[in-house]
Amino acid sequence: AFEDRYLLELDDVFLALGPYVEPGSWVLFHSGTTERWRYVFDGGVDRRTEPRRPWYGR
Length: 58
Hints:
Layout lengths: L9 H8 L8 E5 L5 E7 L2 E5 L9
Antiparallel strand pairs: 1-2, 2-3
């Protein structure tokens, strides 16, 4: 379980996976403090972005 513990090497993991992920794919994370971020894959290069839409999750 994630349990609000951010893996410090997560950026490195997504950089390594980037070349194998279909462009336009993304992974969204959210923390218990309502912080949100996602990794967007675009042709093997990933970018960490902050979503602009309001969050309606738990």
